[in-house]
Design a protein that fits this description.
about 75% helix, about 5% strand, mainly alpha, 2 strands, 2 domains, about 100 residues
Length: about 100
C-alpha cells in the first residue's frame, strides 16, 4: 500500500509541476502561481500585451503614412517656391501712390 501511495504522490507532483512547465514553454509565459488546485496564468497580461503590440503596429503604419505625406508636401512646397522664383518681380505700390489716386 505504501508503494502505491508513493507512486500516486510522484505522479501527482509530476503533473503539478510538469504540466505548467510544458504549457509555459509552449505559450512563452510562466504561470503566476502553482498550487494544489493548479496553475494560474497571466491571461489579462497577455491580452494587454497583445493589445499594446497591435496599437504599436498601428502607430508605426500611421507614422509611416504621415512621413510619406510630409515628404510629398515638402516636394510640392519646393515646386511652388521654384515657380515663384521664376516669376518677374513686380514692385509694390507705395501708400502715397494709392492715396494720390483717390
Amino acid at each position: 500500500m505504501f508503494r502505491i501511495e508513493i507512486a500516486l504522490a510522484v505522479v501527482y507532483s509530476g503533473l503539478l509541476l510538469f504540466t505548467p512547465l510544458f504549457y509555459g514553454l509552449a505559450q512563452g509565459l510562466p504561470p503566476n502561481e502553482i498550487s494544489p488546485r493548479g496553475a494560474k496564468w497571466p491571461a489579462a497580461a497577455t491580452e494587454t500585451l497583445q493589445g499594446f503590440e497591435r496599437s504599436l503596429d498601428t502607430l508605426r503604419s500611421d507614422s509611416t503614412d504621415l512621413r510619406a505625406r510630409l515628404v510629398e508636401q515638402q516636394l510640392e512646397m519646393d515646386r511652388v517656391k521654384a515657380e515663384l522664383e521664376r516669376l518677374p518681380v513686380v514692385p509694390k505700390r507705395s501708400k502715397l501712390w494709392v492715396y494720390s489716386r483717390r
